[in-house]
Amino acid sequence: MTIRPLPRNTFREQVVAELRNAIINGTYAPGAPLVELELAEKFGVSRGPIREAMRQLIEEGLVVTVPYLGTRVMSLTLDGLEDLFSVRAEMEVFANRLIWPKRDPELLAELRARHAQLTRTLKDADMGAQLAAEIELHELAYAASGNKLLMSFWNVLKGQMQLYWATYHRAHGRTGPAPTIHDRYVDLMHGDDFAAVEAEIRAHLLQGCATMEDFLRYQHAVVGIS
C-alpha cells in the first residue's frame, strides 16, 4: 500500500483514517513498530499530527506503547482474543436487549438495509468494504440503544475486532465472512423471542472466537508468531 502525502488541512483526521486502514489491511502487521519520524515522512506532515493520531489509535486499542520497545500495532494473542470476545458478547446482548422494545418499522428496515449492504459487498473482493459493512451491521444495536457509554465502549472494541477479522481472512485467502452467517440473527430480530436472539448472538460470537483461537494457535505453533 502506498501512503499518500496529505493536504495540510484536517491532518489529524486524515492521518488517523489512513493509519487505521494501513493497520487493518496489513501494511503494518500486528506487533509492527510505528516510528513517528518515519510516519511523518510517509504522510508528508509534521510529527504533531502523527503523535495525535497515535494517541487516538491507542484509545481505540489498535496501537499500544510497550516499555523499552516503543509504540507498536496491537499484537494478536489468545488472552487478548478471549478478553475481547467475552466482553463483546455481554455488550452485544445488552445492546440488543435495549433495542428490543424499540423495534419499529424504521429500525427493522435499517437492519435489513445494512444486512443487504453486507451481502452486496461480499460479492466483491474488497476486504475494507466488507469489514466496514459488517461493523455497520453490528453497530446498529449500539447506536439505536441510546446508551452513550455503551456506544463509547463499542468504539474502542470495533477497531480491534476488524484487526482480528482482517488478519484471519487474509491468512485464509478470504475477504469477508460467510454470506449467510448473519441471516438467522436478522430473521430473529423480526420475531418475538428475545431468548432466541440472545442465544444466536452468543453462538455466533462463540463460533467466531473458537475459529480465531484455532488460527492463533496454528500461528504460534507452526509459524512461530508470538
From TrEMBL:
GO molecular function: DNA binding; DNA-binding transcription factor activity
Residues of the HTH gntR-type domain: 9-76
This protein's record includes keyword Lipid metabolism: no
Gene3D superfamilies from the UniProt entry: GntR ligand-binding domain-like (1.20.120.530), Winged helix-like DNA-binding domain superfamily/Winged helix DNA-binding domain (1.10.10.10)
Listed InterPro entries: GntR_C, TF_FadR/GntR_C, Tscrpt_reg_HTH_GntR, WH-like_DNA-bd_sf, WH_DNA-bd_sf
A Pfam family this chain is assigned to: GntR
Keywords: DNA-binding, Transcription, Transcription regulation
Protein name: GntR family transcriptional regulator
